[in-house]
Amino acid sequence: MLVDTSRGDRVGEFRGVAGPYWSLRPVGGGRGWEVEPRFVRPALLMEQLRARTARLNARSRGEVL
Q1: Residue 9: helix, strand or coil by DSSP?
Q2: 65 residues of the chain, pLDDT tens digit each
Q3: Is the CB of residue 39 less than 8 Å from the CB of residue 6?
Q4: What one-character-per-residue DSSP string does 21-59 give?
Q5: Do residues 4 and 39 lie in contact, with contact meaning Cβ atoms separated by under 8 Å?
Q6: Spatial CA neighbour of 30 closest among 13, 47, 50, 42
Q7: pTM for the whole thing?
Q8: Which residues have a Cβ under 8 Å from the Cβ of 42 and sit 6 or more positions away?
């Protein structure tokens, strides 16, 4: 997991390279986005856990599959 510092420390999973950008998507799925590699850093353990917990909570509420 990586953090996009250009979008308020948004956590995403690396999906690949698209020209000069890296493609990320939300943890567990959703609409992806592209970011310049200079704005990306590895996610801290706490950030990874927060992203996974948010995904599981949304799933338990029926908001995502």
Answers
A1: coil
A2: 999 999 999 999 999 999 999 999 998 788 999 999 999 999 999 999 999 999 899 889 988 76
A3: yes
A4: EEEEE-TTS---EEE-GGGEEEPPHHHHHHHHHHHHHHH
A5: yes
A6: 13
A7: 0.84
A8: 1, 2, 3
The residues, ordered by sequence, that sit 6+ positions from 54 with a Cβ below 8 Å of its Cβ are 27
Q: Indicate the DSSP class of residue 64.
A: -
Residue with token string 């856990």: 49
- Please name the residue that has the structure tokens 């338990």: 60
Are the C-beta atoms of residues 11 and 1 closer than 8 Å to each other? yes
